[in-house]
Amino acid sequence: MRTIRTLLAFLALAIPAALFGQLSISISIAPPALPVYEQPICPGDGYLWTPGYWAYDDGISDYYWVDGEWVMAPQEGYLWTPGYWGWGDGGYRFNEGYWGPEVGFYGGINYGYGYYGEGYGGGRWDHGHFFYNRSESRVDVAIIHNVYNERVDHGRDDKRVSFNGGNGGIDVRANSQQETAARQSHVAPVAAQTEHAQTARANPELRASSTQGKPPIATSPRPEAVYDHQATDPTRVVEASRSAGTGGATEPRVDSQAKPLDSPQPRTAVHPNDLAPVQRPEPTNSGNAKADKKYQQQQDTLIAKQNQERQSLQQRQDSEHQRLTQQKASDAQAQQLEQKHRQQTQQLSDRHAAQQQSMQARQPEPRPQQDHPDKKH
Description:
By secondary structure, the chain is an alpha+beta fold. The chain is built from 5 helices and 19 strands. The longest helix has about 40 residues. The termini are far apart.
């Protein structure tokens, strides 16, 4: 793929989105269609759904899939505006997503699960609490009671198009309300989101070229039934006070016939102590003793840092278990906490694997051996 390799990094908090909204990478080929995937159950109160999207790695000239995830809002009252690819000046550019008091323009893209091209119908803030729309968000009402039911119009069928403008793209422009929202103060993606994207970038199985645009994580089976509780009457229900935005098309659904190209192994680790020890690589012997020593020191520093992060997360999780025991929590609450811990541990493991892969890429190259002429006798 032909690209214009001009990269501007914008890392900012609470600044107008117009100042950091568009990343100047121009791609000549449009991103693939949005794949079919199943939304995992919400891990706890206060988490908001951020949909999956196609990102681009200029280093390998390929798109890669960043799966959707539940993320804690950076502050009360903030909602997520998804990023989107848009056509302009002869190429496709990605407009970064952001957090803000209102959902802004995201290209009219139908990301599903409440994001149907305009606004967000999966939930809303009310008096300091986030309420989940059970028709769009998978929540366990035995744990989360801030719920309501409201039908959301899914609009037209757009064939799961993932970009705005250009040949075959969504032909929608921002309205006046969305333009106003774009001028408000915003918060850039939080650390959990950037780490999640970095992990996806390091996974070759999520690249468009190797999966024909159908990443295996997007066609995985439904989550285990133990987490798929049937909805019951909530303790607290709020009647609909406003309708969600329209536009977009059919929501993501499970393709029961689809099989991943290479099914990932089940993730069983719940806590950092369940993970296998961090493996220390074999010492390098590139022929450059100074470079080998420096690389080994970098490896030792990384391993020590990762072990410390494991210990810190384990201690936090242990403290949460103790508090839950003191509160005499129900089995459902204990199960919810275990699910949260499993996700935290897996995210940590994925991030550490990406760091190790990046470190190995910097391993000193072996020096070429010089040919010695045969000795004459």
